[in-house]
Amino acid sequence: MTREFDPVKLSVLANAFDGIVREMTNGLLRSARSSVINTARDFSCAVLTADNQLLAAAEGVPVHVFGAGPLGEDMIALHDDIREGDAFLHNDPYLGNSHAADHCILVPIFIGGQHLFTAVTKAHQADCGDSLPTTFFATARDVYEEGALIFPCVRVQRDYTDVDDVVRMCRSRIRVPDQWYGDYLASVGASRIAERRIQELAEKFGTDDVVDFVEAWFDYSERLAQNAIETLPEVDLHGESTHDPFPGTDPEGVHIQATVSVKPTQGRVSIDLRDNPDNLPNGLNLTRATATGAALAGILSGLPETLPSNAGTFRRIEVKLREGCAVGVPKHPHSCSSGTTNLADRVVNIVQSSFARIDDGYGSAEGAAGQTPAKAVISGTDERNGNAYVNQILVGGVGGPATPYVDGWPTYQRPVCGALLYHDSVEVDEQRYPILIHERALVADSGGAGKQRGGLASRVTFEPRVDQVTLTYGIEGKENPPKGVRGGLGGAAPEAWVEDVSGGEPRAVPVVGRYDLCRGEKVVSITPGGGGYGDPLERDPQAVLVDVNDGRVSARAAWEVYGVRIDEHGTIDSSATEKQRRNLSQGSGSVPQ
């Protein structure tokens, strides 16, 4: 920068770009056809600079946008004839994308004949051509068994007109072509919104001011990050976690680790993920984008300050990856079908929980993850109209992590999403798909106890209204559920089973894979709960009473775990509570008679 940027104008333009991304988001949410996008909001929008730095992401999902810069790098590297009116389709996990199910639309934005920005929409598809009707193929042994259509940043529009060859490829391979095409048009439209609005912004403020703003905003964000890091002690934090055994893993699961090095005198933090297993013969492998995004999400969750989510902040954070690593940069043809979820969730948890070891007030507990049947991809033919359908439902949430200051959210969805995904409407899902949902409820005592309690698990029960509905899912955390920190307890493990609608003995379902749910059966799905933060005996007794009254904690757990006695009048017995907490702290708690 050659001049001091006006701080008022800096704020105005920062909020203007944020507003543009939010308008993109609203446009995509309201115009997409698949419910995984227009109901669950499994998509993100962002704006990159011409040199491929993340400028604005608003409420973009961390695993989608924190590592978005390489998407722009691919566009520049692979095309030397970019011009106004172009759009590019990108879902290649071996380049800069997350996984094959996330179709990205990149639109280069020209101002005065110069490419200055790139609009990015990334939307999780209902179907992307996998050999099975799912976009999370965790058991795929390689990309060929996965079967998804891979587009290595191909031009899909020229002069604002579709390249029909690419569109025909998608329509001929994807199981729900009209639904996909509607989502594609919505994504292109969202990116074109950014194109128009940024051009209008440059016309209003002048191109020079908009260009100078970018570096000023990055510099300001970097100073905020540096100041936040300088308040921390110099420390190396080592975290570990184990993903449950899946097909293609060791019988003990996948043990992963991370070392977080805090250098306050330098104002820098690094996350080293290189000392981890090589690529796995299944779909769990992370990509450069998802490993980076997960590590950055963990850092921003662990720091006690709220920082802008842009490249200026990220200048102070280094993520160290290794090629050929399961939580690094994948080697072709290893599958990355579940690269936005399972191991990425574990990376977020490792990093954010590591910060809790610094002191009270830092970091957070582990959040729940996994794809129980309540979050399955469902598919089949709807006998009501004869139409095929494929879509992921998000009927049941998972328990979020407790933080130093608040309880975990029961609508968290998973660590890599930062609680930004929405829950499906029961009524809308029943209207769109041939299922009947009997129950969606929170499960008492499922959140990890602590000074701040982990988010509760959800219990969901549903049945098909046709002869068969295929569920594709992957239950994770059954053997290694979310952990608490600083004396907080872990969250409850997930469960799932099938039983007859008329009753009878429950029948186990596979932990991961495909299950054909038939007429007369119902599946019961219980998601994991989040971990707790701090000693449960330090929880405010009034907060325990509220939890008991609301059905989040049982009276028995209030006594045995939190040491709070609630009498027959529904009030706290202070004397009994004080005595019980003293006994529990000494390891001699008792159940009231």
In short:
This protein is α+β, with helices and mostly antiparallel strands and 593 residues long.
Helices and strands in order:
Blueprint: H1 7-31, H2 35-38, E1 43-49, E2 54-56, H3 62-65, H4 69-78, E3 87-90, E4 102-111, E5 114-124, H5 143-146, E6 154-158, E7 161-162, H6 164-173, H7 177-205, H8 207-230, E8 235-243, E9 254-263, E10 268-272, H9 288-302, H10 311-314, E11 317-320, H11 342-354, E12 377-382, E13 387-392, H12 426-432, E14 435-442, E15 458-464, E16 468-474, E17 495-500, E18 503-508, E19 512-518, E20 521-526, H13 541-549, H14 555-560, H15 574-585
Parallel strand pairs: 10-11
Antiparallel strand pairs: 1-2, 1-5, 3-4, 3-6, 4-5, 6-7, 8-9, 9-10, 12-13, 12-16, 14-15, 15-20, 16-19, 17-18, 17-20
Structure description:
With 593 residues, the protein is α+β, with helices and mostly antiparallel strands. Helices cover 30% and strands 22% of the residues. The protein is built from 15 helices and 20 strands. A 7-stranded antiparallel beta sheet has the order 2-1-5-4-3-6-7, with helices on both faces. Strands 14-15-20-17-18 form a 5-stranded antiparallel beta sheet. A 4-stranded mixed beta sheet has the order 8-9-10-11. Strand 17 and strand 18 form a beta hairpin. The longest helix has 29 residues. It starts with 6 loop residues before the first helix and ends in an 8-residue tail after the last helix. The relative contact order is 0.11. The model has no long low-confidence stretch (mean pLDDT 95).
